[in-house]
Amino acid sequence: xxxxxxxxxxxxxxxxxxxxxxxxxxxxxxxxxxxxxxxxxxxxxxxxxxxxxxxxxxxxxxxxxxxxxxxxxxxxxxxxxxxxxxxxxxxxxxxxxxxxxxxxxxxxxxxxxxxxxxxxxxxxxxxxxxxxxxxxxxxxxxxxxxxxxxxxxxxxxxxxxxxxxxxxxxxxxxxxxxxxxxxxxxxxxxxxxxxxxxxx
Length: 200
Description:
Layout: H1 2-11, H2 13-23, H3 27-38, H4 40-53, E1 64-65, H5 67-96, H6 108-115, H7 117-122, H8 131-157, H9 161-194, E2 198-199
Antiparallel strand pairs: 1-2
Helix pairs in contact: 1-2, 2-8, 3-6, 4-5, 5-6, 5-9, 6-8, 8-9
């Protein structure tokens, strides 16, 4: 059912959030049926794009990553996504009581996972590593993910839309802080010698 929900969120999000709430998946089942598979899309596409296609800046030569380097970075990205979804989900569960959520079943990981669906799916564009194409596609996916967050949180947590807006804004803020922290961690990891290795 998880993948069915993923595509349903793209066509009729309100009804799909209701169906997700009624189904009440466990975190284990959610990871097995949704997150582990969809998080592979950007990781595998990025690996292919950086090793087989490469990218070009201006009129310069095409640059690619070595296979070992690309695999290492793709694996780290994959693990970071899996961990990030879980941590963000736990933050959502922690915030739930503050915003008087009626729903007492922990649904934070579910909300985080399904909200990230457009970003997972658009990750296929990483197979063609063009900075402008990737940036535009990423912005569209991120905008729809934010829409899903604001639309789905009140439904999933059973709270009024006004409080849902404040709750979703808090979640979005935590997500942005986590993204910046991930960038900082990436810089630290690269400085330890696990950075990209380029080939021509």
